[in-house]
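step=predict obj=CoA-binding protein n=136
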Amino acid sequence: MNVKDSEFKALLEKYKKFAVYGLSPDATKASHYVPLYMRDHGWEMVGTYPKDHNAGGFKIYKTLKEIPAEYRKFVDVFRSSDRIDEVVDEAIEAGGVEVLWLQLGISNPEAEVRAEKAGIKVVSNRCLIIEHKKYF
């Protein structure tokens, strides 16, 4: 992680649109209810998911590359730590990703360093809901 805790509020103020990598159709999963919470608090988002769904009314894309650039700048990631290498590869290939936010319980130091070397800010093992409640 190359972003200090003290920078989280500024990131959330700057990026009011973002992509949710792995936005689940299952309402019991954090990858579904965290985006709902953030949307209810003024953020706009779209998601990626391997299968089509319209749960929560979110626009879903198959890959990051398909996501409009204004949403791709900040990517909130819900993938297991062992899959973050693939996410970093996709983010670098898609281009335009400025922030990778790896949700609570997710970290992959080697992949995070690769993202950082590509100029991407990385937050790992942090929940957007928890951080939002601290600052807003």
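step=describe
The chain has one domain: 5-135.
step=end
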